[in-house]
Specification:
The chain is mainly alpha-helical. Helix content is 69%, strand content 0%.
Length: 554
């Protein structure tokens, strides 16, 4: 007869086919998901606080680059803490985001900077998609609809993700061990309710009575300034927390593209009528374009009553819109044709190919119009960006023919995104404002009849990249300056002094976070030649302050 304590103990086992209940969470110890969520929330708070000094002053410059670099480092650390490998694609999108954020401390074109910010945000959307496979694991497997869904889902996640992150993912309820009578929770709730109320009434009483207020000197704060700091830090913390939850904690099975049937599908009759009608319309338009390309100015004047320059001016931007709309039509039609309907798909490809050929002829016509337009009116940043957009569309349409029309629709999205980033990077390298400034300053009054001369006022309105060339032209003997009107010369000098010296110039450089290479070079150029510019400048009047809409017009 053995000792009572020596008897072996048996652990009950689950019956066959039954599930073992999940272990209850240990009070005070969060799960692995909870630990990642807590680090994500803390990281968002840190990035929000950091955004306040780095991004509160406009225009943005070096501060954005510093902030996005810190964001990238924190993201890498969180991915590793979550036990996930950082794929080469994710690393690429992080690098792309940093690259285009650097554009704001490199170039000073407002339009280019807006596109750089858009490219940075797009890279962050693709980064979130690659980190958590929502809706697909990577760009190579994505269709255009997947990219749209990824952008929409990331935007919604950034806007609302902080709520589930804070309320459930971080498992804050496990931080305090529950007491038997719930006293800790009651006390905490009472404190959260009482402190804000007491603080508000104390501030009001301190403002109402100086004697009472003298006891609370530490509460004498500029509420507007304090609120602005809280709003900026809170906004960035909120958005970053939502993005981190989307990238690290969302469930791919629940957050992918909805598996609901498309409410509309296209059949053979629909495709034949729509694309066939477009082929006929485009063919008629191309025939007309052949007439003006070879008929010359006399034909245009005889048939439209417009000058050659006016005719060119009215065409390019509308044709660019036609090309962009046709891309949407072709992609939408392909998406709405059921994959099992091979006959309609074949018909779609047969009608799309001649449509692309006709569009190519139309784009050549648009290019000829833009060339003629520039001969008369000169180049502007709007015309340069529109031309770049047309070039990108041409690349996209060629890629469409090589992929979608050859039954490889999933590879089309890759070329669409990569070509967009490549064209935008090329624009950053080309330096649009400096290029436009040099082209305008090289124009002279001699040339085609009716052509506009150099528009110095417009050049002076461009960003900092254009300033050194204009200052050099104004302060030295220059054909562009000699052929320009005297009012243009003095107005351009006055505009430069107004923008780059005095209070306006000081606002651009009041913080290192606003530092920008182009703005720094512009400021130095104007300050170095300030004396001759002031001799040349004329008094500013309300009429002179308006830029003459010649080169700067669309």
């Amino acid at each position: 007869m053995g000792h009572p304590h020596s008897a072996p103990t048996r652990v009950p086992t689950a019956a066959a086919g039954s599930k073992i209940p999940a272990a209850e969470p240990v009070p005070g110890i969060p799960s692995a998901r909870g630990r990642v969520a807590r680090r994500a929330l803390l990281s968002a708070v840190v990035l929000g606080i950091l955004a306040d000094p780095l991004l509160r002053n406009e225009p943005w410059g070096l501060g954005l680059l510093v902030w996005i670099v810190v964001f990238a480092l924190i993201t890498i650390a969180l991915v590793r803490h979550a036990g996930r490998p950082l794929s080469s694609e994710s690393s690429t999108w992080l690098a792309v985001a940093v690259l285009f954020a650097a554009g704001l401390s490199w170039r000073d074109s407002e339009v280019l900077q807006a596109f750089d910010v858009l490219a940075m945000l797009t890279a962050l959307v693709l980064l979130a998609m690659s980190l958590n496979a929502i809706p697909v694991p990577g760009l190579a497997l994505a269709r255009v609809r997947d990219l749209i869904w990824a952008g929409f889902g990331t935007g919604i996640g950034a806007a609302t993700g902080v709520i589930p992150l804070l309320m459930s993912d971080t498992e804050l309820q496990t931080t305090l061990r529950p007491s038997h009578d719930g006293s800790a929770r009651r006390i905490g709730k009472a404190v959260l309710i009482t402190v804000p109320i007491l603080l508000v009434f104390t501030i009001l009483f301190a403002q109402a009575d100086p004697v009472f207020g003298s006891f609370f000197e530490f509460l004498k704060l500029d509420l507007d300034v304090l609120l602005s700091h809280i709003v900026i830090a809170g906004f960035f913390a909120w958005v970053v927390a939502g993005w981190l939850r989307r990238a690290l904690l969302s469930h791919p099975n629940a957050a992918g593209a909805p598996a609901i049937p498309v409410p509309l599908s296209l059949g053979a009759t629909d495709v034949t009528l729509a694309l066939g009608g477009l082929n006929i319309l485009f063919a008629i338009f191309v025939v007309v374009q052949i007439g003006w390309l070879f008929g010359g100015e006399s034909l245009v004047l005889r048939t439209t009553g417009l000058s050659y320059a006016e005719y060119a001016r009215r065409g390019f931007f509308e044709l660019t819109g036609v090309a962009g709309l046709l891309l949407a039509v072709l992609l939408g039609a392909q998406a709405l044709i059921p994959g099992s309907d091979s006959r309609t798909l074949r018909l779609y490809r047969r009608l799309a190919v001649p449509l692309l050929v006709l569009l190519g002829a139309i784009m050549v016509s648009a290019g000829a119009r833009m060339s003629l337009y520039i001969q008369y009116y000169g180049i502007s940043t709007d015309r340069l960006y529109a031309t770049a957009f047309m070039i990108w569309l041409a690349i996209v349409f060629v890629w469409l023919g090589l992929t979608v029309l050859r039954s490889r629709p999933r590879t089309f999205a890759t070329g669409l995104v990569v070509s967009g980033f490549a064209v935008l990077f090329a624009l950053n390298v080309l330096n649009p404002d400096a290029l436009v400034a040099r082209a305008n300053l090289a124009r002279s009054a001699e040339g085609r009849t009716g052509a506009a001369g150099p528009d110095l006022r417009y050049v002076a309105s461009l960003g900092g990249d254009a300033v050194p060339a204009l200052v050099a032209a104004l302060t030295a003997s220059s054909i562009a300056v000699d052929t320009a009107a005297a009012g243009d010369r003095c107005s351009a000098a006055a505009r430069l002094l107004d923008r780059w010296t005095g209070e306006r110039g000081a606002r651009r450089t009041r913080s290192w976070t606003q530092w920008n290479l182009a703005r720094d070079q512009a400021t130095q150029a104007v300050r170095t030649h300030e004396a001759p510019l002031r001799q040349l400048a004329c008094p500013r009047t309300p009429d002179q302050a308006v830029t003459r809409p010649v080169s700067g017009a669309r």
